[in-house]
Amino acid sequence: MKYEDFKDNEYIEQLVKKLHEGGVNVVVGSLDEAINWGRSNSLWPLTFATSCCGIEFMSLGAARYDMARFGFEVARASPRQADFIMVAGTIVHKMAPVLKRLYDQMAEPKYVIAVGGCAVSGGPFKNSYHVLKGVEEILPVDVYIPGCPPRPEAMLYGMMQLQRKIKVEKFFGGVNRQEKKPKDFDEE
Questions:
Q1: Mind listing the pLDDT tens digit for each residue in 110-123?
Q2: CB of 135 within 8 A of CB of 87?
Q3: CA-to-CA distance for 119 and 16, rounded, in angstroms?
Q4: Contact present, 45 and 72 (Cβ < 8 Å)
Q5: The pTM is what?
Q6: How many CA atoms lie within 13 A of 149 on its CB side?
Q7: Biggest alpha carbon distance in the chain?
């Protein structure tokens, strides 16, 4: 995909500028680029699908959309083998501790993609007492994919945005994002 076709290039450019402000050693910078190229082109998703967005995610693995072309082909059911969690669907308060536990079991670096209106903002159920008003209440979200449900093309675009974000990270020397402390569901 051409650079001009992406919608929010400014965000990525600002992230690159911020990461490289202090100066980068040539050897470490080249090693960063090689490692991040490999990491970004072999991302394994952990699917957490609770409703209709999960069906759209399943269509990504079929022949028409074929997410294997982009390096996402190994969808895992174990959090210990996944690189990012794709939260697709409505998250109720009873399911939130389970989702948080799965996220905590993932190895670092780990990423989160919120798929669909329900995971992004609560969707049509946002005024319900039992639904989270977005998965960012419990997890730090890296990419948002809006829609109800989003088309498979939108999901591929969001996954490609995650690839772009990973390609500009510093693998050596520092943490790229600061996780805020989410509320603990065990205390309630």
A1: 889 998 888 888 87
A2: yes
A3: 28
A4: yes
A5: 0.72
A6: 20
A7: 53
